[in-house]
């Protein structure tokens, strides 16, 4: 009782004294923590670089207000463009890093006015309207960042669109002075009018080290495939003239030529074609009776009759686009806008965005030496195909040519697809108008969670005349429990397949398909006889695989229906010493491909291989009778972003055991 009373009598008096004593301490501690939080927040969100605070946009800063930079005569000059550059040798992809949106970040340098020691500008025009529109579009896009430390790609605010307005040496010195230049690594230059008299080089003459070039007149000699981007020459008429879309179909003229600066030999040949074909061909030229100016640029004449340009282009099915002093011509853009099928005659010219656009669907390319045969060549194209090409030409213009914004963002998207190939746009997304929907069979990426219509797999055996070996393969495959059907593709047009009585007797349907041509691509054709989701492609000499091994391969495929599942493996890799791709066929621990001489895959890929893969690949495979397995591996990998799966046969297991024993 006493102790309790003592504690209760002192307690109330003790607590107030403790609050008073430590009040200053608590206030000080709280203030320190609060200031620390404020400082941390300012550090996180305050710009970390002087460069990042600068803004190139003309809306916020006039060109005349841009800082003046004088170039000493002794300023370093970059090396000329390295023709050996590729994305894996001259571009630092690690700077791009991983981000959830799979999108590169682009930094635009602040505006600066570069002059030499005498105060003469490096360009006679400064910043053109077209280049300003281009930079404005990029700065408004999701690619743009104002934080230089996050940038993957750098774009100078130095306008090099038109080489005619540049002082070559001084422009190169200005590029080398950019703070992040680093020999042009990860820098992108836009140029539409390269070269100058008398040679008119097909690429920008300004020394640029390793910088990527988006060029408007590349030839096969100057274009670095997979590194540079071929872009169109922008036509100012695109913004000034509104051409309503015209329905595809026959036009008043069959062929129309509207260019004014055509070489006299080409014009003489066109005039000869005009004499032979009369009103079917309209040959226009500059109007000599009109005064020079903007109005005359929109007029064309033929024997005194005046036509509005580019409106007259809509009156022809085909429009000629001939090379001039430069390979790239703005007329191509005008022709596409009019929905006229361009007939390009410019040897070695790299068509704009040809890395992703299938120009065979929208244009006709004819060698210059065959100009005299142009009418006959174009007449051989079916009317329905011409209509499809007219529709595709107009859509190409709307999507990729219609503005500097379209050109700039398309260029960045192509580079983005190279850096993030697993998230890249598909062939259909690049080439099919949004209203066109392609559907045939279900994509294995989005298969319904229900059993397939037909269980098991269909074995497709490609053969020519090895009958004895073929029969042995059929006999062995027929023992596989999951085999649903066996389809023999007879690729020999000079010899009939054996009589029905001679074929092995098996318990599943056996169908023989005779092809019209001896092509390797026949093995990947989507035959109507294939009713199962799973397909086993197998050669007629693969006799070493047992029925158990084939059944196991099918079970593996059922777990991974969006992949190639095969037996023989191969490896492709870049050989830095040789400077080229290397293909390994030896037994190694590394595998990047499986041979389609014995592989399971979803029948969906038959449709893609036959109808959606770029035609040049199939044509090369059929012409050389080789590499169809490489083509299929690359097709599946590009569609799914996934590697093939190698299944080990008993020979593989023996080899593995030998390796293991040898290492002990």
UniProtKB/TrEMBL annotation:
<comment type="similarity">
    <text>Belongs to the glycosyltransferase 47 family.</text>
</comment>
<keyword id="KW-0735">Signal-anchor</keyword>
<keyword id="KW-0812">Transmembrane</keyword>
<protein>
    <recommendedName>
        <fullName>Exostosin-2</fullName>
        <ecNumber>2.4.1.224</ecNumber>
    </recommendedName>
</protein>
<keyword id="KW-0479">Metal-binding</keyword>
<comment type="subunit">
    <text>Part of the heparan sulfate polymerase, a dimeric complex composed of EXT1 and EXT2. Could also form homooligomeric complexes. Interacts with NDST1. Interacts with GALNT5.</text>
</comment>
<dbReference type="Pfam" id="PF03016">
    <property type="entry name" value="Exostosin_GT47"/>
</dbReference>
<feature type="coiled-coil region">
    <location>
        <begin position="256"/>
        <end position="283"/>
    </location>
</feature>
<keyword id="KW-0328">Glycosyltransferase</keyword>
<dbReference type="InterPro" id="IPR015338">
    <property type="entry name" value="GT64_dom"/>
</dbReference>
<keyword id="KW-1133">Transmembrane helix</keyword>
<dbReference type="GO" id="GO:0005789">
    <property type="term" value="C:endoplasmic reticulum membrane"/>
</dbReference>
<keyword id="KW-1015">Disulfide bond</keyword>
<feature type="domain" description="Exostosin GT47">
    <location>
        <begin position="101"/>
        <end position="381"/>
    </location>
</feature>
<keyword id="KW-0808">Transferase</keyword>
<feature type="domain" description="Glycosyl transferase 64">
    <location>
        <begin position="457"/>
        <end position="648"/>
    </location>
</feature>
<dbReference type="GO" id="GO:0015020">
    <property type="term" value="F:glucuronosyltransferase activity"/>
</dbReference>
<keyword id="KW-0325">Glycoprotein</keyword>
<dbReference type="InterPro" id="IPR004263">
    <property type="entry name" value="Exostosin"/>
</dbReference>
<comment type="function">
    <text>Glycosyltransferase forming with EXT1 the heterodimeric heparan sulfate polymerase which catalyzes the elongation of the heparan sulfate glycan backbone. Glycan backbone extension consists in the alternating transfer of (1-&gt;4)-beta-D-GlcA and (1-&gt;4)-alpha-D-GlcNAc residues from their respective UDP-sugar donors.</text>
</comment>
<feature type="transmembrane region" description="Helical">
    <location>
        <begin position="24"/>
        <end position="46"/>
    </location>
</feature>
<dbReference type="GO" id="GO:0015012">
    <property type="term" value="P:heparan sulfate proteoglycan biosynthetic process"/>
</dbReference>
<comment type="pathway">
    <text>Protein modification; protein glycosylation.</text>
</comment>
<keyword id="KW-0472">Membrane</keyword>
<keyword id="KW-0333">Golgi apparatus</keyword>
<keyword id="KW-0256">Endoplasmic reticulum</keyword>
<keyword id="KW-0175">Coiled coil</keyword>
<keyword id="KW-0464">Manganese</keyword>
<dbReference type="GO" id="GO:0046872">
    <property type="term" value="F:metal ion binding"/>
</dbReference>
<dbReference type="InterPro" id="IPR040911">
    <property type="entry name" value="Exostosin_GT47"/>
</dbReference>
<dbReference type="GO" id="GO:0005794">
    <property type="term" value="C:Golgi apparatus"/>
</dbReference>
<dbReference type="Pfam" id="PF09258">
    <property type="entry name" value="Glyco_transf_64"/>
</dbReference>
<dbReference type="GO" id="GO:0050508">
    <property type="term" value="F:glucuronosyl-N-acetylglucosaminyl-proteoglycan 4-alpha-N-acetylglucosaminyltransferase activity"/>
</dbReference>
<dbReference type="InterPro" id="IPR029044">
    <property type="entry name" value="Nucleotide-diphossugar_trans"/>
</dbReference>
